[in-house]
Every structure is written in C-alpha cells, then in structure tokens.
Amino acid sequence: MIVLGIETSCDETGVAIYDSERGLRADALHSQVDLHAEYGGVVPELASRDHVRKTLPLVQRVLDDAGVEKSEIQGLAYTAGPGLVGALLVGAAIGRSLAYAWAVPAVGVHHMEGHLLAPMLEVDPPAFPFVALLVSGGHTLLVQVDGIGQYRVLGESLDDAAGEAFDKTAKLLSLGYPGGPALAALAEQGDPKRFRFPRPMVDRPGMDFSFSGLKTFTMNTLRELETGVTDQAERGQLHADIARAFEEAVADTLAIKCRRALQETGLSRLVVAGGVSANQRLRHRLNEEAGKHAAQVFYPRLEFCTDNGAMIAFAGCQRLLAGQHEPLGFGATPRWSLEELEQPGGQG
Ligand code: KG4
Ligand code: ZN
After folding, report:
1. CA 53: distance to chain centroid?
2. 87, 10 in Cβ contact below 8 A?
3. 180 CB within 6 A, ligand 1
4. 297: CA distance to ligand 1 center in Å?
5. Which residue spans within 91-188 are E strands per DSSP?
6. How many angstroms from the chain centroid is the CA of residue 300?
7. Cβ of 136 less than 6 Å from ligand 1
8. Tell me: the pLDDT tens digits for 217-233?
9. Which residue, judged by its Cα, is nearest atom 21 of ligand 1?
C-alpha cells in the first residue's frame, strides 16, 4: 500500500510517501524555525498560516521525488493530534480533501504514535513488545508498547517536557529558539566536573518525571555565579559548564527511569524517539545503561527524531492496512492521551 503522510502539528511541515512493499519513497520537510525565531518560540497563528502555504507544494514535491502518480496513492495519513489546533486543522483539512478527491481512505494519526514507530523505518527495526521513551518538546513519556495501538503509559512528566526544559534553559543562557540543539552544542565546551545538578525524582519510586525544578536550579546557579563576572570568556565558560551540567542531569534522569521501566516490565528492547532523542549525550548514556542490562536500544535516524512526515505516513499505513479509516468529517484533537488509542482492527 502506498500512503501519503502529512505532519503539521507544530512548527514543521512534513510530507512523505511510505510504501509497505518498498519502504520510504520520498520525504520532504519545511521548518518554520526562521519564522518563529524572532519571537523566541512558536506563534500558533503564524504556524497555521505557514502550513497553509507549504503543505501542497510539499505534496507535489514528494510525488515528483518518488516518481509516484497521484492515482497510485492508496491512502492518506495526517496528524490529528496532539498539537496546536489551528496547525493540526490545516493538515487534517488537506489530508481529508486529497483523500476525497482521490477516492482513497484517510486516517488521523496520533503524533506520539508516529514518533514511537519512527525507528521502524530503519534497517534493523525493533520487534514488539518494547519500552518506548518519548522525549519531545511537548511530551515526556515512558510507554510499554505491546503492538500498534497497545500502549500502557508507565510514566510521564508532571510539568515541563524534556524538550521544553532544554528550550527554557537555553533561553536562560541567551541561546536562540529552538534551544535544544544550541544548548547541546554549548555543553560540548563545558567542563563536566565543575557542577553536579540534581537528578529530579530519582529517589522516589515510579517512572514519572519532573523537570521544572531542575530548570529553576539552573536559573539560580546562573544568577548567583554570573553576578559580578565581567570577563566575556569567563562568562562564556560558566554558561558552557552550566549547559553541560544541565544536559548530564537530564540524560542521567531519563536513563535511570528507562532502567526502571526495563526492569519492571521485564522487556529488553528500548525505543527512544522524539526531538530530544537526537541528543548525543542522552544516546551515549542510554546505550551505556542498556549495555549493563543486556538491552538493545533503537533510535530513529537523526532527521526523524524531530517532527517529520515519514513517521506519520508509516504509522498511518499500518492502521490503513489493518482496515482503519475515518469517516468523511474530520477534526483535530489538541489534547490526546496515547492510552485512548485502540488496536487497529482489534479490541483495544
Ligand atoms: O519531537 P519534536 O520535533 O517536536 C515535538 O513534538 O515537540 O521535538 C522538539 C524538541 C525541542 O524542544 C528541541 O529543543 C528538542 O526537541 N531537541 C533537542 C535536540 N534536538 C531537538 N534537545 C536536545 N538535544 C538535541 N540535540
Ligand atoms: Zn513531535
């Protein structure tokens, strides 16, 4: 089955064609980073308007790149939530309309299901069941995944998501938006021995996360030590050392919770996805932890860690193949728990 996937939940327009026989045929992405940069974060209305401008040209581009005719598309998949409602509605409206015009079924995909299935686009895909650590800008979740639509949330963030914590901390350090990659780059220059920041909630049982205290701790450390520092180089080094300590604390906290999830579920495969899974220190720390417990870790390729159309085309294809599709009317679900999903074609 050849499926066209559309992702417009936040600040990237992603479109891709996935073919269940031949794999990923084409993938195109337009990032809105430049559009939102001057505001220091995503402006929802600007995001929606930009998706309106970019989605159809990207659809044409992936058809051309894949050498696929419109008439060969057998299904449409679009992100139906969670995300920014206006942005979601653009993808849903376009996805639904194309499906209607081309007389093929369409399916609304859960954005986090897209992320958690993204490593399945790789050469050595994980087999079910596995534990998934989903670390994006809006969510931090540990999920037991028994199959498509069979999700049990083991833990989640009680406040800021991991990516949000990176972005807010980056802002404190006067780095641009999105802050995660910039903070990671700065942390490379940092001295890992200068500070040790707290690992939030690791001394309590359970697998929930909380990152807002760590963000405040980082802010207080910065304010306290920055006062009176006039030398530019010294200030730069302080920022880098703080970035490093913050990054180590987040990576370590996530690794500790993953270890717990693997132990409690008795599973030996860990999938890590979402924007923050591009972070090299996190990958290093998780690989180290998995090594100690004879577990295998699976990641998407770097460009599929952050939002993209390929993961939506893939997830949608699995559901369409199982016979699931939506009636003509469409909507978007800005707040949507993974556990509300059902197994395609089965009892949820
Ligand atoms: O999954 P994603 O593209 O969008 C959401 O669904 O939210 O994740 C975006 C998040 C942002 O917070 C961004 O700063 C973070 O992922 N991120 C990173 C890195 N690359 C992206 N955080 C840390 N290190 C990175 N290398
Ligand atoms: Zn995402």
Report:
1. 23
2. yes
3. yes
4. 19
5. 106-110, 130-135, 140-147, 150-156
6. 10
7. yes
8. 999 999 999 998 999 99
9. 275
